[in-house]
Specification:
This protein has about 325 residues and is mainly α. The protein has helices at about 10-40, 50-80, 85-90, 95-125, 130-155, 165-200, 210-235, 240-270, and strands at about 280-285, 285-290, 310-315, 325-330. The chain has 8 helices and 4 strands. It has a two-stranded antiparallel sheet with strand order 1-2.
Length: about 325
């Protein structure tokens, strides 16, 4: 540890306090998510996989902060005068039980969150080929994360987390999860953008209902990626700030997941159908003249989002005569 680095005991206390603040915020957002999934919905209409994932994220982040509190209490109170080297040596010990447990929980939280991003990507594109790269990156996250946790559990108390044999797996984990999140979120945003662009001329001046969701998806991806990138930079620089950022990443993962579901629910409540008439009207000298529309063939791709109990669907329409394109909200 360099002279200007954060002491291990100070960092542990700081990360626990900051994580507690973010955890409280994530609990509030979890309540909003439960509302968005169940409001005016029958039990059979609730998206059970997403419902279960939301609960699991809350459980993992809850257990993580409990383990962190126990770790701080052990290092600063219980073993303060008995642990060789004092509190700083206690928090620097990567083989200590609470350290291994909380990082195992972090790996599980990351795998769950990245898996949801890949699931959303598949739902949007409806193609297995599109999610091949994100899925391979997810497997890389699983391999590097599990190996890193196992290596830490088998190391000695004098081993540094920045040691070469651990650095390979830890850096691989950070890079893989950043790439998996960025690729999955980027594919989702690109799909929504292309659909919006293709139907913009058919919307007849009505407001876009999917672009706000794309903005929230990108905000969540940026929030998560910035936290991970900061942790990676701290680790590469062998800075103890890495311990703080990893602890903060756990509630940030939950917040990023919940904010998307809540925005989709708000968008659902304010969604409406664009009204497109079957006659074109022109006003000339105060008189209204009507001209029949010519036959039009409409090709609109399908977009489905099943992150909650509703799906926004743009149907495929082909007709020899003119038909009004609809953007429907399927219950």
């Amino acid at each position: 540890m360099t002279s200007n680095d954060i002491p291990f005991d100070t960092g542990a206390l700081m990360s626990t306090v900051l994580e507690g603040i973010l955890y409280g915020f994530s609990v509030l957002m979890f309540m909003g998510t439960m509302w968005s999934l169940t409001y005016k919905q029958h039990v059979r209409d609730i998206n059970r996989p997403i419902f279960i994932v939301a609960i699991l994220l809350l459980l993992l982040s809850t257990v993580h902060i409990i383990v962190n509190i126990i770790r701080v209490e052990d290092g600063l109170v219980k073993y303060r005068d008995t642990y060789p080297g004092g509190p700083r040596a206690f928090f620097a010990d990567v083989s200590e039980e609470t350290y291994v447990i909380k990082h195992a929980l972090y790996v599980l939280q990351t795998l769950l969150a990245d898996g949801v991003v890949i699931y959303r990507c598949y739902v949007v594109w409806q193609s297995v080929w599109v999610i091949i790269l994100p899925s391979m990156l997810w497997c890389s996250v699983a391999v590097t994360g599990v190996t890193a946790v196992y290596s830490v559990s088998q190391s000695s108390s004098s081993t540094s987390v920045f040691a070469q044999d651990l650095a390979m797996w830890i850096m691989g984990f950070f890079i893989s999860t950043i790439a998996a999140n960025a690729s999955g979120s980027g594919l989702i945003a690109y799909r929504i953008w292309t659909i919006e662009r293709n139907i913009a001329r058919l919307r007849a001046g009505s407001k876009s209902t999917m672009m706000p969701i794309m903005h929230v998806l990108m905000d969540a991806a940026v929030l998560y990626s910035v936290a991970l990138f900061t942790a990676l930079v701290c680790y590469v620089c062998s800075n103890n700030g890495d311990f703080i950022m990893v602890d903060l990443a756990v509630p940030i993962i939950s917040i990023a997941f919940y904010m998307v579901l809540i925005r989709i629910a708000v968008n659902r409540q304010h969604n409406y159908l664009p009204n497109v008439g079957t006659n074109a009207e022109t006003r000339q000298s105060g008189n209204v003249q009507q001209y029949p529309m010519q036959p039009l063939q409409v090709h609109i791709s399908q977009f489905t989002s099943s992150d909650n109990t509703s799906a926004h669907e743009i149907g495929n329409e082909r007709s020899s005569g003119w038909r009004s394109p609809t953007w429907t909200l399927v219950k």
